[in-house]
């Protein structure tokens, strides 16, 4: 089955022991600034993800992982979500995704246009990927099924 939306990124093996250990203070400060001034597209996606609204998944905003800040991160699954505007550099993004993949973190990327015009489909892709991801901490409940509805965009 193909996903209803294209996304870039890869699936990596292994686990991240403590991705939040010893955050560079400059990155932490920058992440806080970004949390306080999200783009309209990040805000829209956050409203759908916050409070474990999507399949009971807990996401963080502007999460620092080593030397990378990801827009949204579900630590229980090692699932990062990136919202890409027109200024994103695809080569740089590919290098960042590869570094995260080596730590066992799956990156899903969505464009501003996808968030604006097809949010339900974006949420389906995220929920479907969450079901496929192994729990990083056994013994915790796994995510529920993806939201109702299938179909194209």
Helix content: 25-40%
Task: Please tell me the overall pLDDT.
Answer: 77
User: Which strand order do you get reading across the main beta sheet?
Assistant: 1-2-3-4
Count helical runs.
5
CATH architectural type: 3-Layer(aba) Sandwich
How would the global form be characterised?
globular
Sequence of secondary-structure elements: HHEEEHEHH
Name the structural class: alpha+beta
- State the low-pLDDT regions, or none: 1-20, 149-153
Give the total of beta strands: 4
The third-level CATH topology is Endonuclease, Chain A
CATH class: Alpha Beta
Write down the domain tally. 1
| Separation, N- and C-terminal Cα atoms | 15 Å
Q: How big a fraction of the residues is strand? A: 15-25%
The CATH superfamily name is VSR Endonuclease
Rg computed from alpha carbons, rounded to a whole number of angstroms: 15 Å
Could you please describe the fold and organization of this structure?
The protein is globular. Helices cover 35% and strands 16% of the residues. A hairpin with a 4-residue loop joins strand 2 and strand 3. Residues 1-20 and 149-153 have low confidence and may be disordered. It contains 5 helices and 4 strands. A 4-stranded mixed β-sheet has the order 1-2-3-4, with helices on both faces. It has helices at 25-36, 40-49, 90-101, 112-117, 119-132, and strands at residues 60-65, 68-74, 79-84, 106-111. The protein has 153 residues and is of the alpha+beta class. The longest helix has 14 residues, at 119-132. The protein has one domain: VSR Endonuclease (Endonuclease, Chain A), CATH 3.40.960.
């Amino acid at each position: 089955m193909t996903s209803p939306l294209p996304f870039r990124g890869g699936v990596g093996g292994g686990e991240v022991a403590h991705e939040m250990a010893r955050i560079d203070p400059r990155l932490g400060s920058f992440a806080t600034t970004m949390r306080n001034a999200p783009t309209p597209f990040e805000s829209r996606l956050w409203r759908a993800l916050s409070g474990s609204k999507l399949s009971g998944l807990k996401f963080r905003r502007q999460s620092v992982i080593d030397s990378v800040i990801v827009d949204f991160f579900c630590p229980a699954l090692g699932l990062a979500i990136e919202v890409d505007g027109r200024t994103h550099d695809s080569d740089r993004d590919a290098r960042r995704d590869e570094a995260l993949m080596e730590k066992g973190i799956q990156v899903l990327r969505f464009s501003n246009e996808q968030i604006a015009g097809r949010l339900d489909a974006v949420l389906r892709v995220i929920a479907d990927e969450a079901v496929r991801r192994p729990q990083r901490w056994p013994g915790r409940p796994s995510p529920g099924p993806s939201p109702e509805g299938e179909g194209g965009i």
